[in-house]
Specification:
Layout (H helix, E strand, L loop, with lengths): L1 H46 L7 E5 L6 H8 L12 H8 L5 E9 L3 E8 L2 E7 L2 E6 L19 E3 L5 H11 L3 H4 L2 E6 L8 E6 L4 E5 H8 L2 H6 L7 E4 L5 E4 L14 E3 L3
Parallel strand pairs: 1-3, 4-6, 6-7, 9-10
Antiparallel strand pairs: 2-3, 4-5, 7-8, 8-9, 10-11, 11-12
Helix pairs in contact: 4-6
């Protein structure tokens, strides 16, 4: 009796085993077919325009146009998105003189995002009849000359691309906006006792005699110094050693060395 039960039991299991094997075979076939279609889809994708760069976003640029940045990146709608090398593009764009840093990333499915950080134009140098921008790193952009008088930054005279210019730019960057906007011209005017001596011409008609070494520290008090003067009183504010004011002989005249009208403006 036990032997019959065993025989029946085995016979009952055979169809189930066949069915399980058939299901496994079907699943394997479906998996292989799926891989095949994915492989075909990938081939079609890489050979179609869908894999090409369809959009380029440029962020953070003010000096350079989107066209300038994209041109330097050397990518176009013919470029395959998977052949875009972020590091190589960043190196190309960083060759632009007014670019500090660049970050490039690919955005699914076919967009390239270029984020740039530009160097600021801190001042302009007068070269003959032109005005040349000076960047915050002290570099002079000789290829960006303009005959228009800059309105948003002081004009520098007699400076060259050396230590004095770099120190001057650092000092200018530390000034409050209201003081910076009050400066019209800065002349590099070294004397025997001070190779960093400068003379400033202010928009309010005053002049300032200072040294680059302490310029930022003392010039922040300019508004306070001027507030102590009479409204129609103009002259030279000396910030070299201490702070004192020496009025012109008359409005619009050059300062007179023998003028005794001096006012202490020590801060």
């Amino acid at each position: 009796m036990d032997e019959k039960k065993k025989v029946v039991s085995i016979e009952d299991r055979i169809p189930k085993l066949k069915q399980q094997r058939r299901k496994k075979a079907n699943r394997r076939l479906i998996f292989l077919l799926l891989l095949f279609f994915i492989f075909i889809a990938c081939i079609l994708y890489f050979q179609s325009p869908l894999s090409h760069v369809q959009g380029i976003k440029v962020l953070g640029n003010n000096v350079y146009s989107d066209k300038d940045i994209v041109s330097s990146a050397k990518i176009s709608s013919d470029t395959n998105i998977w052949k875009v090398e972020n590091d190589e593009i960043e190196k190309r764009i960083e060759q632009l003189s007014e670019i500090r840093t660049v970050a490039v990333k690919k955005q699914f499915p076919n967009t390239v995002v270029i984020n740039v950080d530009e160097l600021k134009r801190i001042a302009y140098i007068s070269v003959e009849n032109d005005y040349v921008p000076v960047l915050e790193n002290g570099k002079i952009l000789e290829n960006s000359q303009s005959t228009n008088v800059p309105l948003n930054a002081p004009i520098l005279f007699s400076f060259t691309e050396d230590k004095s210019l770099k120190e001057m730019i650092k000092a200018i960057e530390q000034l409050p906006e209201e003081v910076l906007n009050a400066i019209s011209e800065i002349h590099y005017d070294p004397i025997q006792s001070d190779e960093f001596h400068i003379s400033l011409y202010m928009n309010d008609g005053n002049e300032v005699s200072a040294t680059i070494k302490t310029f930022a520290e003392k010039m922040v008090h300019y508004s306070s110094i001027v507030s102590q003067l009479l409204p129609d009183q103009k002259g030279v504010i000396n910030l070299e050693v201490g702070s004192y004011f020496k009025a012109y002989e008359q409005e619009g005249a050059e300062p007179d060395e023998d003028n005794e009208d001096e006012k202490n403006t020590e801060q």
